[in-house]
Write a structure and sequence with these properties.
Blueprint lengths: L27 H15 L6 E5 L14 E4 L5 H11 L4 E7 H7 L1 H10 L3 E7 L34 H8 L3 E6 L3 H13 L4 E6 L12 H4 L1 E5 L5 H10 L4 E7 L15 H7 L3
Parallel strand pairs: 1-2, 1-3, 3-4, 4-6, 5-6, 7-8
Antiparallel strand pairs: 5-8
Helix pairs in contact: 1-6, 3-4, 4-5, 5-8
The chain binds thiamine diphosphate and iron/sulfur cluster.
């Protein structure tokens, strides 16, 4: 029997001809591989996928895939992606970027994307540092980590993205690890299949500015968290986690926000309404 094109998409089929320029050993390479593996397992045609990012080493990722891509402004990937999803509900919209991009400058958008619950997948490539700008502390940096900008550490408690996502209304909250590609690909599949806003926080070592993160593979626990739709149980698991547990902490099926395009007005409709 002749195979259809859709049933033959391999992970390679989703890669562009542009070679990544990340430092050798950077965790982001493994996330790229897990992402194309996930897309191949879902067999989504390239033309139906949009990958939107902000700014940072991680945010370079759209260039490396042969899908629609937008390398946007720092911290502004989520509003862009939600705008696209509003007018193209048929597309699989994925957002990717760093902890600096998403939780610092983009923090406000993050909270509102969680509560809006549009059908968008958010992959945060969290290396607990601003890699692209040479190693400043980010919201997820440990307060005791010493850097040029904060020689005594920041002394500021870390931002817990899973807690914030859950409290803000995200319907899918998970953590993965770049160094465990098989499990990560599975988590990306689940996040894309989920109907609603999904946060997949991915620990991704920055081998250049945080070489000690190369040790993360010894600490991360492989998919040890079992999914629940019980908010209180999920909150407890997230609060008690030391940051090295992986899996889906929370998944719930609640109404997804998708504006009705038939009710959408054009600028000329508004102009007519305000005509005097
Ligand atoms: C408005 C604005 N402010 C600051 C910058 C500088 N800048 C570029 S990338 C970046 C942080 C990137 O860190 P992260 O999102 O964690 O990604 P990583 O490089 O670690 O993958 C900053 C502050 C910018 N490009 N635009
Ligand atoms: S600076 Fe860090 S995050 Fe950026 S490419 Fe190098 S290892 Fe990766």
């Amino acid at each position: 029997m002749k195979k259809s094109i859709e049933s033959t998409l391999s992970p390679k089929h989703y890669l562009s001809k542009t070679h990544p320029i990340w430092c050798p050993g950077c965790g982001h390479y493994f996330i790229l591989r897990a992402l194309v593996t996930a897309l191949a397992s879902l067999q989504i045609p390239n033309k139906d996928i949009a990958l939107i990012s902000g700014i940072g080493c991680s945010s370079r990722i759209p260039a490396y895939l042969d899908v629609y891509g937008f390398h946007g402004l720092h911290g502004r990937a989520l509003p862009l992606a939600q705008g696209l999803k509003a007018v193209r509900p048929d597309m699989t919209v994925i957002v990717a970027g760093g902890d600096g991009d998403g939780y610092s400058i983009g923090g406000n958008h993050f909270i509102h994307a969680c509560r809006r619950n549009m059908n968008v997948t958010y992959l945060v490539m969290d290396n607990e540092v601003y890699g692209m700008t040479k190693g400043q502390p980010s919201p997820t940096t440990d307060p005791t980590w010493k850097s040029k900008l904060a020689p005594h550490g920041t002394d500021i408690r870390t931002f817990n993205p899973l807690q914030v996502a859950l409290a803000s209304g995200a319907s899918f909250v998970a953590r993965g690890f770049a160094g465990d590609q098989k499990s990560l690909a599975k988590l990306i599949v689940s996040a894309i299949e989920h109907q609603g806003f999904s946060l997949l926080e991915i620990k991704s070592p920055c081998v250049t500015f945080r070489p000690e993160e190369k040790e993360w593979h010894k600490k991360m626990r492989k998919l040890n968290v079992k999914s629940t739709n019980d908010f209180i149980k999920a909150a407890e698991k997230i609060y008690l986690s030391d940051g090295f547990d992986t899996g889906i902490f929370y998944q719930n099926h609640i109404p997804v926000y998708q504006p009705d395009l038939n009710e959408t007005k054009t600028i000329s409709d508004f102009e007519k309404e305000f005509e005097v």
